[in-house]
Amino acid sequence: MAETIHVVDPLPDERRRIVDALVAEPVVVKSYDDAVQFLDQVAATTSGCVLVPLDLPGMGLRALMDEIKRRHLPLAVVVLGRDSEFAVAVELVRYGAFDFLEHPFSDHHLRSVVRRAIGA
Amino acid sequence: MSDPTVFIVDDDTAVLDSVAELVTSVGLRAATFRSAREFRDSFDPERPGCLVLDVRMAHISGPALQDELNASGARIPIVFISGHGDVAVAIKTIKAGAVDFVQKPYREQQLLDSINEALRRDAEARQVDDSGEGFTERLAALTERERDVLERVVQGSSSKSIARALDISYRTSGAASQPHYGKNASSFGRRADPARYRAPQCLNPPRRSAASIRVVCISSYCLPTPTEIILTATPDVRPG
What we know:
- The complex is a heterodimer.
- Chain A is of the alpha/beta class.
- Chain A has a single domain (3-117), classed as Rossmann fold (3-Layer(aba) Sandwich), CATH 3.40.50.
- Chain A is built from 5 helices and 5 strands; from the N terminus they run E-H-E-H-E-H-E-H-E-H.
- Chain A has helices spanning 12-21, 35-41, 61-70, 86-95, 107-117; strands at 3-8, 27-32, 48-53, 75-82, 99-103.
- In chain A, strands 2-1-3-4-5 form a 5-stranded parallel beta sheet, with helices on both faces.
- The longest helix of chain A is centred in the C-terminal third of the chain and has 11 residues, at 107-117.
- The two termini of chain A are 13 Å apart.
- Chain B is an alpha/beta fold.
- Chain B folds into 2 domains: 5-130, Response regulator (Rossmann fold, 3-Layer(aba) Sandwich); 132-232, no CATH class.
- Chain B has helices at 13-25, 36-42, 62-71, 87-95, 108-130, 132-140, 144-155, 159-166, 186-189, 199-202; strands spanning 5-9, 29-33, 49-54, 78-82, 100-103, 171-173, 215-219, 228-232.
- In chain B, strand 7 and strand 8 (228-232) form a beta hairpin.
- The longest helix of chain B has 23 residues, at 108-130.
- The model of chain B is unreliable at 169-240 (pLDDT under 50).
């Protein structure tokens, strides 16, 4: 079964950029406007990773990670953010995020982080 | 058990002295080392405490020392301090088990909080060690299949390869006191100390079947810090 990459971002350009970067990867890519939509739609048996921006509006990253954990979803969480957020990035990884990808990042770097996140 | 010691390793003596002063000012014991090698030469894993480690040092860097300690099964909790804000390095050390990664200039209370957290983790891990009976009971409560999984986790298999080897589907979840490393449990397994992991000697050879496992809760007797790893099979099946 293919791994699923869940792209959660309110900005359509951001989503499109990421989806395009992953187009040749052997994964299923799904995108969502926000965390609530993602949580509503994500299947319990899904396996893969979630790409979310650091400034995720609405429920926020910790609440999202808590919910993923609560449901035992086998999804690694990768946060995309600005490199000036050093302490925040460290704190998120301590809290449970798989990795933190700093803007600006290349498509190549994105793909390599995603591959590691899904255990490839 | 003796009082815990905060072991401080930094080749910058100014930093070494100021961290030592901070630590002793709140009544903790400090031991200072000017290099990773110096620390390593005197390191005794039986001594309780934690490690405050600089990142950039000549010869052996902080992260390199961490890798060595992990490989040898040492479980001393580490707080990194660094003057260089490399996020990727920080994340790597956290995922390799560091308690925290503090950037200079640090707020003294932040460093103290992290040191206290590290000492707490060390004390908890040692408590679990000493209560050997509790571990045996917990182990006995596992099914054969679950113990099989446990053994593989400790040996460093990723969740995926465990699932493949046992021919089961899987879901994994980390737990509260440790970062949730997604589906890869091998970061835990790699740090397990084989000498401390007595379980395989008291187990019967595990049976392999196509049945799915229900839940495995592993208390971290053999892992560096108190940790629960929960492996859940889908669909839920009664354990064999």
